[in-house]
């Protein structure tokens, strides 16, 4: 009874979507239940294994994390979870659902694939509402709130200053508000014993909590086999394992037994782990857009961060002219150029006009090829060139040095224009941070500083390449 009261209190205290921002702290998120059960003990009680040197500890800037209390040799098992401990959509996907579950399945079907976290989020909310849930020791240890932008106040959403991310945030907020209506409609007049959330009201805020809990903690692992022998990815919440924080240089990795039907989830030490070091997993080679949207943090100097632009002929002509390139014809390509643009999916019936600068490629291959081809006049030379070479920055000046310099100069001009779209300069942002911006304001400012840094890094890289090419050209003379 006491437990059910506590549960009611926590669900009823869910924050509306836009008002959590001022209290969001990426460093110390409070847990759903302040004195929650010991997760390590629970995993061991359920038949799992936790290395004796693995402890949960507060990290300075990443919330809770796992830490080694003594040196752990490479290859050691760190955590093993038996099959019944991960939280999955479970029987709901195998078609053995009962009446309660079928309502969740119906709701889950209305969730677009890209918001897959909401599907498992429905199951998480159901377990959160269920008195005596098997997963309560895990759920009670989850953060009470998340620093993802769907919970930012309007001002901090604007503070992001980056249209593609604003678009994603708005899309998620709109989805949650619409989905709230769908859920309310489906739950209307249900008797408590038929109600998947124990009769409790579910709103956009609680749905947002569940979606963020899943997007920031779930791992997509092997599920059952398809008829073609490949495996379906199944998102799962892995209690305790999900206390590992992220690094691109991880010292631990998740290993899944191939025996899918009854597989254990395991984390092993990928390198030797020194005493007092955190246990770190790689969440994926993601841009800061995804780290912020799904996990609520930003990685400084993230080598996978990039900026998104729209491929647009008139815009490219303007950039090219600003770069001093004579009579570019991006907005009126010759038929042979148009043909190559179609092969790059930058023209044609359903083109994908989103292109990027930064990240591993520096200039996205499709954009680079388009710049090279549209700035070339020799059709034969272009047609003799392999498309993969045209898309590659490593292929040195495939259409000649003058063409390469013009392409890079146009890309640099694109960077200048993109940088000009940000209302503030990095120095102003840094000054705001030094004055003590906190919570979601700090996150938003860090995010836009990183985006601008990506652009500046691309400009530096391309400028260096232009200099190198120009000096080669001079040597030839
Ligand atoms: C899978 S959970 C890890 C456990 C989490 N720190 C906690 O307190 O429960 C992922 C969350 O940890 C935090 N986190 C993980 N890696 C981080 C990093 N490299 N920098 C900042 N925050 C990080 C973010 O809040 C993220 O949403």
From TrEMBL:
GO molecular function: protein-lysine N-methyltransferase activity
Keyword tRNA-binding among UniProt keywords: no
GO process annotations (BP): methylation
Alphabetized UniProt keyword annotations: Methyltransferase, S-adenosyl-L-methionine, Transferase
Location of the SET domain: 52-284
CDD domains: SET_LSMT (cd10527)
SMART domains: SET
Entry keyword annotation includes NAD: no
The protein, known as: Histone-lysine N-methyltransferase setd3
Organism field: Senna tora
């Amino acid at each position: 009874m006491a437990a059910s009261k506590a549960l009611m209190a926590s669900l009823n205290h869910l924050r509306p979507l836009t008002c959590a921002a001022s209290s969001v702290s990426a460093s110390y998120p409070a847990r759903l239940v302040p004195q929650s059960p010991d997760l390590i003990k629970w995993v061991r009680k359920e038949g799992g294994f936790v290395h004796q040197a693995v402890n949960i500890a507060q990290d300075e800037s990443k919330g809770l994390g796992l830490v080694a209390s003594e040196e752990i040799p490479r290859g050691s098992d760190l955590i093993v979870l038996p099959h019944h401990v991960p939280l999955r959509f479970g029987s709901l996907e195998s078609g053995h659902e009962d009446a309660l579950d079928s309502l969740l399945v119906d709701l889950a079907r209305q969730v677009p694939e890209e918001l897959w976290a909401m599907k498992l989020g429905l199951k998480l909310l159901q377990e959160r509402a269920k008195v005596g849930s098997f997963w309560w020791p895990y759920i009670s240890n989850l953060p009470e709130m998340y620093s993802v932008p769907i919970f930012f106040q309007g001002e901090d959403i604007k503070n992001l200053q980056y249209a593609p991310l604003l678009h994603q945030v708005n899309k998620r907020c709109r989805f949650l508000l619409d989905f709230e209506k769908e859920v309310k409609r489906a739950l209307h007049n249900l008797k408590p014993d038929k109600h998947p959330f124990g009769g409790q009201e579910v709103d956009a805020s609680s749905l947002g909590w569940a979606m963020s809990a899943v997007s920031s903690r779930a791992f997509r692992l092997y599920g059952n086999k398809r008829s073609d022998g490949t495996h379906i990815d199944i998102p799962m919440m892995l209690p305790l394992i999900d206390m590992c924080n992220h690094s691109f240089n991880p010292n631990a990795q998740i290993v899944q037994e191939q025996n899918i039907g009854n597989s254990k989830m395991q984390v092993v030490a990928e390198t030797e782990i020194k005493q007092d070091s955190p246990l770190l997993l790689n969440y994926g080679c993601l841009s800061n857009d995804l780290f912020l949207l799904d996990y609520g943090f930003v990685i400084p100097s993230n080598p996978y961060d990039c900026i998104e632009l729209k491929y647009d002929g008139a815009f490219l002509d303007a950039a090219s002219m600003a770069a001093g390139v004579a009579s570019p014809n991006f907005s009126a390509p010759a038929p042979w150029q148009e043909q190559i643009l179609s092969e790059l999916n930058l023209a044609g019936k359903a083109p994908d006009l989103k292109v990027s600068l930064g990240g591993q490629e520096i200039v996205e291959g499709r954009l680079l090829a388009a710049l090279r081809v549209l700035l070339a006049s020799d059709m034969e030379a272009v047609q003799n060139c392999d498309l993969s070479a045209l898309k590659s920055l490593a292929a040195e000046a495939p259409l000649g040095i003058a063409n390469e310099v013009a392409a890079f100069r146009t890309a640099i001009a694109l960077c200048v224009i993109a940088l000009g779209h940000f209302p503030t300069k990095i120095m102003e942002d840094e000054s705001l941070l030094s004055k003590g911006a906190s919570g979601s304001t700090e996150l938003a400012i860090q995010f836009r500083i990183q985006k601008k840094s990506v652009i500046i890094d691309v400009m530096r890289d391309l400028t260096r390449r232009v200099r190198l090419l120009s000096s080669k050209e001079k040597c030839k003379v």
